[in-house]
Amino acid sequence: MRGGRVFSPAWPRVIAAFLSLVLVFSCPGVSIAQAPTVAVYSDISGTDCNIPDTTPGLLNAYVVVTNSAAGLTAVQFAAPVPPCFTGYYLADGAVFPVTVGNSQTGVSIGFGSCQVTPLHVLTIQLFVQGTTPPCCEYPVVPDPNAPSGEIELVDCDQNLLYGGGGISVINGDPSCPCGQAPYSPSNPFPPNGAFDVWLSVTLSWDASDPQGDLLNFDVYFGNTPSPPLVAGFHPDDSYEVGPLSPGTDYYWQIVVRDTDNNETTGPVWFFETAEGGSYASICPPRRITADWLPRTR
Which CATH superfamily is domain 186-273 in? Predict the structure, then answer.
């Protein structure tokens, strides 16, 4: 490595072997409860997935890992420059000293310690020759050398995680918005204002994203109108609660998050449990409540 750039032919094979051990063989289990996202951004915080290249010259793009509920120690992926880009790849700027390979053909990065997301893991150095046509998609994909065929990460307990690859846009415009927030959650079950609800119930809701991104959810649930967080980065559109107290009002709220880390906060919903036990049926609402109560975050 010279001047912070990474060139895979110069690295000893023993380091590559070490990364392989970190990413695969040292992991006692495989966890897919939460899929972290690896994507290319125009900033190191991972907030802007639109990468403008209107000025010829040097351009840095930043690979950032987001959406991980667990701390991480390593990642393996590839981010080859898309054919629609009007320019060419120069080199990678290493953020962590154990960086093997390159973004174009596959790279493995060991962090050296437990890290939390969002986490800037690599800088891709590009040269812009001219303005790229609008809506040039720039995805992050699995390293072709990864045994699983997936984007691989390792958490701080040495569990192997499979991540999602975000799709950024070079020169996005209104026809290809980048980072558009998910739609608000809807169609709650139990229905908002329901009563005689079972004392053990599975909450469910509908959620979608205008760009078709994968989604995860923060679930807030409790017996106060501002319910506490009970599950962060939950991967499913349902969540089981219980046992609950009879004859009690419960409130719940869903925050929807996409692979670009955009969030939409849904309304606070509520239901009342049955007085007599867990065998009661769920009845439709008997009183009217405000349907939209944005949560202050």
Answer: Immunoglobulins (2.60.40.10)
Domain ranges of the chain: 8-170, 186-273
pLDDT exceeds 60 at position 198:
yes
DSSP for residue 17:
H
SS3 category, 15: helix
Q: Which amino acid is at 20?
A: S
- More confident site: 72 or 208: 72
pLDDT of residue 204 exceeding 50: yes
Taking the CB of residue 47, how many other CB atoms lie within 10 A of it? 15
- pTM higher than 0.85, yes or no? no
Return the bridge partners of 60, or none. 125
CA-based angle 152:157:158, to the nearest 5?
Answer: 40
8-170 and 186-273, same CATH topology: yes
Q: Which pair of structure tokens corresponds to residue 247? A: 């004859």
What is the C-alpha to C-alpha distance for residues 37 and 181, in angstroms, rounded to an integer? 16
Helix (H, G, I), strand (E, B), or coil: what is residue 244? coil
Report, at the CATH architecture level, how domain 8-170 is classified.
Answer: Sandwich (2.60)
What is the Cα–Cα distance from 274 to 247, expressed in whole angstroms? 5
Of the chain, the percentage scoring pLDDT greater than 90 comes to 56
- Comparing C-alpha atoms, which of 189, 203, 185 is closest to residue 258? 185
pLDDT tens-digit profile of 12-51? 333 444 444 444 434 334 444 446 889 999 999 888 888 9
DSSP state for residue 290 in the 8-state scheme: -
**CA dist., res. 140 & res. 173, Å (int):** 20
Question: E-strand spans in 173-273?
Answer: 186-189, 194-197, 201-206, 215-222, 229-234, 238-241, 249-258, 263-273
Q: pLDDT of 113-154, one tens digit each?
A: 999 999 999 999 999 998 899 889 999 999 999 988 889 999
